[in-house]
Amino acid sequence: MTNFQRYYLKLGLKQIPEEQWIDWVDALAEDDYLIIENFISDDLMHRILNYFNRQRRKDQFEKAGIGALQNHQIKRSIRGDEVYWLDEKVDSELNLIFELFRTLIDQLNAYCFLSLKDFESHLAYYPKGTFYARHLDQFKDRNNRLLSMIIYLNEKWEQGHGGELVLYPIGKSKVIIPPKGKQLVLFKSDVIEHEVLPTNVPRGSVTGWLLKQPKSVGYLLG
Length: 222
Ligand code: OGA
Ligand code: MN
Hints:
Helix content is 30%, strand content 25%. It has helices at residues 3-14, 18-31, 42-57, 95-112, 215-221, and strands spanning 33-36, 62-63, 82-85, 118-126, 132-135, 145-152, 165-168, 175-177, 184-188, 193-196, 203-211. It binds N-oxalylglycine (OGA) and manganese (II) ion.
């Protein structure tokens, strides 16, 4: 990544007018979720996809589990995806996406009066026929996650491909979201139950959580 690209990305998000951020933040506060289409560029999606496919070929994805630490279990009847946890040091080729998460943290802290400190993220691959049953993203024994965010990598998603994300906002009707490439979905991790409907085609995303405490102390403080 050149300095120019780094700059462009930062400015790209920062240049979004203040009124736009305020609208987004208002919607998030009101609904507990926010959907932004075309949040990332084609170029960034393709960079991520390249990396995603390379890690898949190298067999770096593992079957996802449920629950933190000792409760970690694999239950195919609950979730069928495979994940590759990202590490800023190891996966430096994805610097742009890490910068984007940090910018998002800065902007949400500025406009939303939050004090987000860090993020954790993984690439997720749902093979054809898999799903993730209704759940909440906060583990019982660890409540460091404040916001969940998903950026979809499904370039040619169409009706019938399945794999929609369904959100269940408290006291409101469910919201069905097609996992369209470049789209960002943000929601409150401790409030919004959600599920991934069975997908009829392989489905990819970058999924992250914005954290109240730095990652390193998350496990200790719960
Ligand atoms: C998750 C999750 C939703 C999606 O990974 O916890 O709910 O649309 N993902 O991929
Ligand atoms: Mn989830």
